Amino acid sequence: MATPLGNEIVKSFKLRGYSLKLDARKHFESLLSALEDRSEVKEWMGKVLDTIEKRLELLSPLIGKEDLLRAIQDCSREESGEDDHHVLSIISAFQVPKFTYSYERKKYIPSANPSSLLYSGADAKAELFNSRYDLLCQRTSRHDLFTPAVAGGSSKEKKFHLKKIDYLLGTSDKLSDVIILGMISQMKSNRYSLEDPTGVVTMDLSETKFQSGLYAEGCFVLVEGWYEDYTFHVIAMGFPPTEKSE
Question: The DNA polymerase epsilon subunit B N-terminal domain covers which part of the protein (predicted)?
């Protein structure tokens, strides 16, 4: 039967998108049970989880005892001032680690196909734009204007919701106040479209107000407008918001 400390460990790991194997949980619980101060228990759990996220290259969110021990040892060395982790590394252009964004875990994970070739296949171009879209989409979703409102919160700031193009294509009704992140393309002469991984929609730019900047085919933009008769009527177009390094 799980103890309160064991349940707290399981909950903390689940909040970060991980699960512990039974032997790993019992070992971690035995180590933390030796600490009398509850705040110290939470502090060490946070340190171990941070180490797992930053330093361990896991192939699965299920953590075994060996991976847990490595994280604990790294934390112990760092606390004792014996941390030998390299701050700066020089990596060959053909050996740069490749990561892909996981919507399930909401973080970047090592790619299943890490090879880096000088001359890639035809599908590499589509993969490049998909990766670029994933990066901008998750960055935009973290912005204050797009984060969901907190229940019971006092903030009166208006919140927006990003929609995918298949949301438009799946209805025949008029949709107003729609915001979409997508890539500008021109499939027909003098007729611009908006693309994302779910589909393509034709844009009407006759009444569009543009944010200052350079717009070209292949660039990603945030567009606001309404959808009717298989056309997205854009009233405002701008670039995805930037994000501070911290």
Answer: 2-75
